Amino acid sequence: MSAEPSLSGWARERFGERADTVRRQLAVSLLEAVGNAQDAQRSSLSDKNFAYGSALMTRRYEALVEGFRNEPDFQMIRPYGSPHHLVILNGNLLLPFRYAKDDRTPITEARVSDGRVSALVRELFDRFSPTVSYHQEELDLSAQEETERASVRVELERLPADTRLIPVAYAGNAQAGLIRLYWGEAELIDGFGRIRWLHCEPVPLTGLSAGPAASLRHAPPATAARFDHGSLPDLALHARSRIERKNDTIFPVSSETPEETAVTGDNEHP
Question: Is residue 261, in this structure, part of any structural domain at all?
């Protein structure tokens, strides 16, 4: 087995004496998040990866919070418009995102989003990444985007001005799990999520355990109870009034609530 890469001067400068512990916990947390998403995919019995993507979209943030919660100088922030909490450790804000589904895509081609970047991602890079040296294209903003960024700023202005953004880029899929993991510092160079790494280094994944969740993934399945032994759920159904039924255009049927915006838009669709 190859030796674990030694810590760089950058890692020690950013996280001090705890750099090795932070690097290891980062890998453990994301291994656990990906393993949880694989569990969800297997349980779905589907050949589509929606269950995997939805689970990982949430668990990658939650696992970092759980893994670092007891560390000194731990903070977390839930930015405006996002359902997820971001971890801040030693003044470093961790931003996890998937840059590839395979082992062939180079980290130099990493993007923080599958489409146009959100107002939150723009603001995080503009406020907390190193000084931007160039842009591949102008980041023209619409009036709506400007409004969204103004709302995001209110929350982020509570953080110290010397907070540094640490992009955490991973490659993986529902079949192979977590394949590659990198961290470093970068600048956003266009509105489609392309970044330029100012510093980038791999986070080793060998010889690590994903904690309690790992043993649960390989444990024998428990004997399932009969489907008719559980209590019936309260569906809380309500009949529509006569006026609503006769005026569908005014009172349309609505069966879903609107979703909140994810920090980075990289849901794992097939």
Answer: no
